[in-house]
């Protein structure tokens, strides 16, 4: 299935750095055709090749967003989440969202027909997407098979879905329109050492206005929010294989020890422990220590290249059309 949420690395970076506007999301059509229960799209952040949905949009299907390699970013009205391999986010039908592969990442989108949604799965939730589940989904996407076998496999996959005991870091965003531009600026530049006073002055706001908005809208101080944002950005960089000292610098810390201490305060584990707990064994033929590098086409999942998922350029089974 050929699907993507952003056209190229520049757009992916922009999507991960700017909060969307949710007032009038585009309403998309269903991606799963009867009698099938689910289908999976794969996107590597390439150039667009077809119709697109710009900005926030919805689907009547549920969506499980998960990265196969590197990291991806998911925006919903609740906030921003960056996902690394092994992590997934369940997005219920009708939920506005914007998503894309981060640079070097391979993002996957599994759509689940409304009739097949597990009972009580009516809200956003973290889902564990281990290697076995990933390979089954990618196998269905790439392999022709009889309908009865495809449907049996899809039912097994749905039974395998379970909550992730290690939730994805969520960076909530302030609802106050006066603060949104400031938050977008910080999202774009997490390593900046500007103070709250400097950020407020940059946007012609008083410190009191900013402080009250963060406390009222997201229940935390600006300083704590920025620390959470930096750690979320750090998980994506770590998933790309960046060394910890570089990640520390890119996230605004002058020393690795200060960064590691801050990372532990937010996540409960060190950067190395976080990746170990989140790790998904690499497929045969690909080194586990290099998740962002594929061993030729053999190990790379089929990828699509048109922005924001559309999905009606495929057959009901998820196979590409010529």
Describe this structure in words.
- The protein has eleven helices and eleven strands.
- With 322 residues, the chain is of the alpha+beta class.
- The strands form three sheets. A five-stranded antiparallel β-sheet has the order 2-9-4-7-10, covered by helices on one side.
- A hairpin with a 2-residue loop joins strand 5 and strand 6.
- Helix 7 packs across helix 9 and helix 8 packs across helix 9 (256-267).
- It is globular, with a radius of gyration of 20 Å.
- The termini are close together.
Task: Produce a short descriptive summary.
The chain has 322 residues and is α+β, with helices and mostly antiparallel strands.
Based on CA atoms alone, the radius of gyration comes out at 20 Å
Strand order of the largest sheet: 2-9-4-7-10
The proportion of residues in beta strands is 15-25%
CA-CA gap between termini: 11 Å
Q: Which shape, going by the Cα principal axes?
A: globular
| Count of runs of 4 or more consecutive helical residues | 11
Task: Summarize the amount of helix as a percent range.
Answer: 25-40%
Write down how many β-strands occur, each being a DSSP E stretch of 2 or more residues.
11
The overall pLDDT, averaged over residues, is: 78
Largest sheet: 5 strands, antiparallel
Low-confidence stretches: 1-16, 47-52, 280-322
What is the element string, with H for helices and E for strands?
HEEEEEEEEEEHHEHHHHHHHH
Structural class: alpha+beta
């Amino acid at each position: 299935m050929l699907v993507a949420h952003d056209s190229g690395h520049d757009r992916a970076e922009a999507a991960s750095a700017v909060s969307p506007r949710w007032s009038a999301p585009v309403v998309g059509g269903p991606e799963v055709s009867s009698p099938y229960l689910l289908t999976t799209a794969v996107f590597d952040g390439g150039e667009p090749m077809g119709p697109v949905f710009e900005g926030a949009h919805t689907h009547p299907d549920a969506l499980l967003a998960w990265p196969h390699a590197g990291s991806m970013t998911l925006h919903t009205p609740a906030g921003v989440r960056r996902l690394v391999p092994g992590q997934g986010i369940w997005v219920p039908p009708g939920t506005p969202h914007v998503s894309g592969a981060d640079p070097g990442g391979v993002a996957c989108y599994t759509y689940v027909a409304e009739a097949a949604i597990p009972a009580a799965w009516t809200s956003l939730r973290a889902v564990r997407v281990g290697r076995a589940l990933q390979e089954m989904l990618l196998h269905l996407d790439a392999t022709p098979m009889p309908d009865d076998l495809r449907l049996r496999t899809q039912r097994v996959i749905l039974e395998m879905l379970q909550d992730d005991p290690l939730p994805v870091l969520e960076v909530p965003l302030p609802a106050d329109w006066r603060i949104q531009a400031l938050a977008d600026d910080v999202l774009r530049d997490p390593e900046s050492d500007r103070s709250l006073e400097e950020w407020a002055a940059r946007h012609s706001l008083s410190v009191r206005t900013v402080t009250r908005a963060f406390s009222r809208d997201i229940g935390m101080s600006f300083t704590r929010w920025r620390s959470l944002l930096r750690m979320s950005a750090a998980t994506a960089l770590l998933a790309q294989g960046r060394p910890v000292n570089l990640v520390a610098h890119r996230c605004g810390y002058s020393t690795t020890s200060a960064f590691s201490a801050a990372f532990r305060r937010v996540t409960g584990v060190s950067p190395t422990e976080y990746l170990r707990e989140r790790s998904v064994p690499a497929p045969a033929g690909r080194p586990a220590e290099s998740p962002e590098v594929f061993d030729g086409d053999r190990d790379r999942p089929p990828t699509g290249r048109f922005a924001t998922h559309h999905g009606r350029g495929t057959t009901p089974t998820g196979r590409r059309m010529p």
